[in-house]
Amino acid sequence: MISIRNPLLLLLMLHEAIQYHDGIYGPGLHPKEVVMPARYFFVNITSIVGQKYTSKLNNDFAVEIEGTSAKTHYCRIWVNKLNRKDGTFIVRYKVYETCNDLSISLYYKSKHIGGSPFTFKGPILPDQCYCPEKNFDKWFKQYDCPKSYDKVTHDLELYGKVNMKTQLKKIIHRFHKPESTSFCHYVVKNNKIYRNCYGKHVGFNMFADNILLFLARKVVLPDIELIINLGDWPLVRKGTEPLPIFSWCGSDETVDILMPTYDITESTVENMGRVTLDTLSVQGSIERDWSERESKAIWRGRDSRIERLKLVDIARANPDLFNVSLTNFFFFRDKEQDYGPKQPHISFFKFFDYKYQVNVDGTVAAYRLPYLLAGGGMVLKQDSPYFEHFYGLLQPWKHYVPVARDLSDLTKRVKWALANDNEARTIAENARKFANNNLLPQHIICYHAVLFSEWSKRIDSEITVDDGMTHVPQTPFTCDCKTDQRREDHQEL
Question: Where does the protein end up (predicted)?
Fold first, then answer.
């Protein structure tokens, strides 16, 4: 909570508090309660100062975030200001050690705005701290998580009370094919993570490890048992016995329980770390306003589906409408002479030098869609039997322009956009709003937490750690939790 020590000052700031509430918002303004790798909040600078957006605002608006620590007196904090070039800014900051207090100052032309500075009493914890909140419901409210999601309810409705010992045996019998499928059996017991993996290619277990470890550092998870599919293809076909396998991608022919993809999950738990592509960075790394963008549809990618070769054919026939190239040949190496030469990768952010972005399936759903939606361009999305956890909320002609599975109407759709620029821009703006309402780090964290919590209520068998299971430890990191509700020890034992 924001701490204002002087009651008279509080009364004087009531009007500015409304400005703060309207123009400055986001989970990063609750740094004690909401612990993330990178905390973030939004500042609508044009609303606060009452001016239209110009590029000069970027220099006129400044952010300063400071704190103190027990060790060095000066808390190490990295601050990142992202200009969305529409009068709003995203402010991200990463805390590298426990801060005793924190101060956020926002300036316009060197003067405080919107009730700034905002001060917070600690401990303000870095992401690495193992200081889980004991009360799960309290943590849910702190992170502003919904009680459930329609997709979670839908995916779990096939299951009543589940005996995981029996289900695990059935899953191993049906799906343990080391050359083609890989999956891990996870157990969370007393907030510690254990797993046993099956299959030849299990390297992707690091993504499942990371989200479970991340959540366990923040809140004491319910004891839970689950099987996570490490491949892109969903496994449990409709018409067969519904076995509880958690997957990153769904399809019209399967009933796997969906999690957010490993890609968007990794961008959440590694935000402002080794991962640079995320739904926040995309919005702050775009150089051109809509009116300055080239009126073409762009696409880059590898040859992982026949429609991608067809996309090249369409682009070659309509060079005034498309900028399309393949960046690698693997599935259709015999076609490289016809569809090459392969072109070098370009920065994902350069996609938004163009008004329109084409989204075509790869081996399954193209996991780049969240970032395309966040980028403020008009997305041309191929009709697909594959989907991610959020697809059910998307509406054609509101959030994206639909394209036939065989791409037969793609050229027609681009010509429509050219002839209806205002409508195309509105769709692009709706897409970004959708991403901000559903696909930011806070939303991905909440979806996992709700899903695991709801699943834990269906397990009817005793949850035990089997002999031979691998303990997945937290990375040691010294912290001082110092709160009545959290554990006093500094590391997971």
Answer: Endoplasmic reticulum lumen
Question: What b-and-e string marks burial along 333-355, b requiring 16 or more CB atoms within 10 Å of the CB?
Answer: eeeeeebeeeeeeeebbebbbbb
Q: Could you give the residue range(s) of every CATH 3.40.50.2000 domain in the chain?
A: 279-441
CB 88 within 8 A of CB 284: no
Handedness of CA 273, 345, 312, 379 (dihedral sign): positive
* Mean predicted lDDT score pLDDT of the chain: 91
Q: Which CATH class is domain 279-441?
A: alpha beta
371 sits in which H/E element:
helix 369-374
**Which residues contact residue 404 at a Cβ distance below 8 angstroms, ignoring those fewer than 6 apart?**
382, 383, 410
As to burial, measured by CB atoms within 10 angstroms (0-12 exposed, 13-18 middle, 19+ buried), residue 309 is middle
Q: Find the range with the poorest average confidence among 44-53, 88-97, 399-408.
A: 44-53
Nearest to 372 by CA among 457, 316, 297: 297
Tens digits of per-residue pLDDT, 273-303? 877 899 999 999 999 999 999 999 999 999 9
Contact 491, 130 (CB under 8 A): yes
Express the helix, strand and coil content of the chain in percent, nearest 5 each: 35, 25, 40
Ramachandran angles phi, psi of 369, nearest 5°: -55, -45
Inter-residue contact 100 to 125 (CB < 8 Å): no
Classify the C-alpha dihedral 474-475-478-479 as positive or negative. negative
61-68 vs 99-108, strand pairing mode: antiparallel
User: How far, in Å, CA of 14 to CA of 6, rounded?
Assistant: 13
Q: What is the pTM of this model?
A: 0.92
Nearest to 107 by CA among 92, 118, 122, 120: 118
Cis peptide before 242 (omega within 30 of 0): no
Q: What phi and psi, each to the nearest 5 degrees, are found at residue 90?
A: -105, 130
Whether the bond between 441 and the residue before it is cis, its omega within 30 degrees of 0, is no
Let me know: does 178 contact 119? Beta carbons within 8 Å: no
- pLDDT single digits (tens) 111-157: 999 999 999 998 999 999 999 999 999 999 999 999 999 999 999 99
Residues of the chain with CATH 2.60.40.10: 7-127
d(C-alpha 129, C-alpha 122), whole Å: 14
| Packed helices 441-456 and 205-218: angle between N→C axes, nearest 10 degrees | 90
CA distance 316 to 470: 52
Quickly list H helices, 157-261: 164-175, 205-218
Q: Does the domain spanning 7-127 belong to CATH 3.60.15.10?
A: no
Residues ≥6 apart with Cβ < 8 Å to 449: 139, 140, 143, 145, 215, 219
Phi, psi of 232 (to 5 degrees): -75, -35
